[in-house]
Amino acid sequence: MPSRLPVQDIFAGLVTSIGTAIRYWFHYTLVAFAWLGVVPLTACRIYKCLFTGSVSSLLTLPLDMLSTENLLADCLQGCFVVTCTLCAFISLVWLREQIVHGGAPQWLEQNQQQAHNVAGPANEAPGAGHRPAENQPAPAPVDPPAENVAAAGVPAAPDVPGDPAEELEADDEVEAAAEDAADGNNGAQDDMNWNALEWDRAAEELTWERMLGLDGSLVFLEHVFWVVSLNTLFILVFAFCPYHIGHFSVVGLGFEDYVKASHFEGLITTIVGYVLLAVTLIVCHGLAAVVRFQRSRRLLGVCYIVVKVSLLVVVEIGVFPLICGWWLDICSLEMFDASLKDREMSFTSAPGTTMFLHWLVGMVYVFYFASFILLLREVLRPGVLWFLRNLNDPDFNPVQEMIHLPIYRHLRRFILSVVVFGSIVLLMLWLPIRIIKQVLPSFLPYNVMLYSDAPVSELSLELLLLQVVLPALLEQGHTRQWLKGLVRAWTVTAGYLLDLHSYLLGDQEENENNGNQQARNNNNNGAAPVVGEGLHAAHQAILQQGGPVGFQPYHRPIRFPFRIVLLILFMCLTLLLASLLCLTLPVFTGRWLMSFWTGSAKIHELYTAACGLYVCWLSVRAITVMLAWMPQGRRVILLKVHEWMLMIIKTLVVAILLAGVIPLLLGLLFELVIVAPLRVPLDQTPLFYPWQDWALGVLHAKIIAAVTLMGPQWWLKTVIEQVYANGIRNIDLHFIIRKLAAPVIAVLLLSLCVPYVIAAGIVPAVGVAKEMQNLVQRRIYPFLLMVVVLMGILYFQIRQFKRLYEHIKNDKYLVGQRLVNYERKSGKAISSPPSSPPQE
């Protein structure tokens, strides 16, 4: 092997590598063009063509596909359309699995079971994938029980004596069902009992690399064609047809002006179309039952279930949080010195953003309310909150409830939820604000508008609160324990005051002997499912059971309803006082502390509320710690106070360095490199705001730390992991200063000072003109950043060239390679056993 490769070998290796790179580049460019260009662009153009409403758009669709106007906007919109169709497809598959494994509603399976029972003799030989027990004729009544009919949403018919005409009609229906079952029952069973092994084999053959074309083959072009076809089909079925059904209905009923005034004409019209489609499916399902078309009846029923579940999901996830968000905003108008006219103007100017923000606020409210209910379940006796659904219950399946429960029960539950959530908002937001306005007139409104010329000032405030303040406050494990302790203390107090301790918390004596009684209750309440019904019977048992799950008995005192009313009033009074305390104490504390720093200037309430929350949390934490130390004696308390004071001093020093100095330098460097050159012209002087730079620097530092922890192993990642592993209790001040703070601060100071020394010291000494000096001072920071980036790219290319050089040399001159196991010798040498001679 020569010490240096010939030039022709290096050139040939470079040409081969460049050819391979070009081939891969062409292939991956084709893949990216197909999936990120053709698919979304086709979806967007077909979507626009269908919703234009003219025949000429259909004729010019091929030319519109090749048009180059608004390519980027159409691609982005097409990506959204493709995402919606993909989500619709996944939802349909998932809903099918829910129906297959959980069972269809009883009103859909009544005739199917009837057909199975009649066709029993024809199906005595069980086929592949069918259990013999399912094919045996089982005696079942023609009419379902009364309670099952009521559960399905159909009123039960009274018991009347049989009529001969009705008996003949029933015989004809049985014969028709038997003939239909003999023809197509096996096909329906084959459709429902699909073979999972074949699906697994197909999934093993088709990988993501092969489907997307990342394996180097061109098979993905067929997948692109199928994706475009499915997108067109889903747009036509799930968007075009419902929209035009709703549009014709709205125009026919004369509601077109009201729909246009809502600024969401397309969405509302589509929802109206889905509602009318559901009603049409119900009517067609009834007609199919009358004319005894069993397969059509089942198909229409499944389509109705799909539309019903879709509408219920929209109501539960979209409409209900939106109502909660708007109600929260309306009840808190006086807190921010706003009016309904302001909200109407904001909605008119940006309807989409306004609705999204209100929906987001409503979702947060619903989430925290559900979290508080889960906390209550940990404290209260099982059975107290029987009227609220338990989200932690393993048997709770909201999709199965949407499939099986009738519409009127969902409507009743929705109205009840709106009343409960709205009443709580009135009690904990509107009424406290009115009381504060009467008692403390100068306390409200909150100052949430910050008038400043500083760039991205309000953005930095919201990001600082959401990314730093709230996570640091909510991640403390003691907050949940404190809240749980307060709820338990309130429950004990209310229980003893109203003689409801047994009702709220249960009796310890009864809890010890409760196991056998609970087992007997479960045996009595839960009926055993019929063999062969499986998960469907279990879900029906859950939906039709009489009492709550996990119920524990309690002692019922005299005048129990009156005591419950007093308990509710006491709870409302407690919630009102807690809301008053949360709305006033943190903000008042933060304003008082900030007044020492800023004087009488108005500060954004995010700062004051965050400062007040931290001070309140530290105060409560200190009080709880002192109460825990008091039984240990004075000497132990003094020792603990000394240890904590030392730890607090170390933490303050580390906080000043890591959360004060480093974010300030990082934010100032970002301002000089990115913000100032882009926003300030050369003939103007940039103004720097250290407070805003520090706020943005905190966010940048958090992002850099997260990226560092996710990246490869190097010295900064090792140091951050070590500091995080030590924690606050085992904080090592010397290690943090020497290994983390000093190197990072040195690098940031060099990045700030070296360009300034060059621009303000060396360039004027050379004798450059004033205009050139100004240009150098304003552009030296981005110029040096570009130089550093180019040097990094050059260093990377040199390393790649060295690897290519070694690869060319090994391919040309390396004949063979042999892998030899290496074992470190410890103690005495490990000798390999002698090889035995070959047997002759």
UniProtKB/TrEMBL annotation:
Residues 112-192 are annotated as: Disordered. Pathway: Protein modification; protein ubiquitination. It is found in: Membrane. Keywords: Membrane, Transferase, Transmembrane, Transmembrane helix, Ubl conjugation pathway. GO terms for molecular function: ubiquitin protein ligase activity. Its main location: membrane. Residues 145-163 have a biased composition (Low complexity). GO terms for biological process: ERAD pathway. The keyword Lyase does not apply. It is a multi-pass membrane protein. Residues 164-182 have a biased composition (Acidic residues). Its EC number is 2.3.2.27. The keyword Transferase applies. InterPro entries: MARCHF6-like_C. Residues 636-809 form the E3 ubiquitin-protein ligase MARCHF6-like C-terminal domain. One of its GO terms (cellular component) is endoplasmic reticulum membrane. The chain crosses the membrane at residues 71-95, 224-246, 266-290, 302-328, 356-376, 414-436, 456-474, 564-586, 606-630, 651-674, 694-716, 736-759, 779-798. It catalyses: S-ubiquitinyl-[E2 ubiquitin-conjugating enzyme]-L-cysteine + [acceptor protein]-L-lysine = [E2 ubiquitin-conjugating enzyme]-L-cysteine + N(6)-ubiquitinyl-[acceptor protein]-L-lysine. Pfam families: MARCHF6_C (PF23113). It comes from the Eukaryota. It is an enzyme of class 2 (transferase). PANTHER family: E3 UBIQUITIN-PROTEIN LIGASE MARCHF6, SSM4 PROTEIN. This is RING-type E3 ubiquitin transferase. The lineage of its organism: Eukaryota, Metazoa, Chordata, Craniata, Vertebrata.
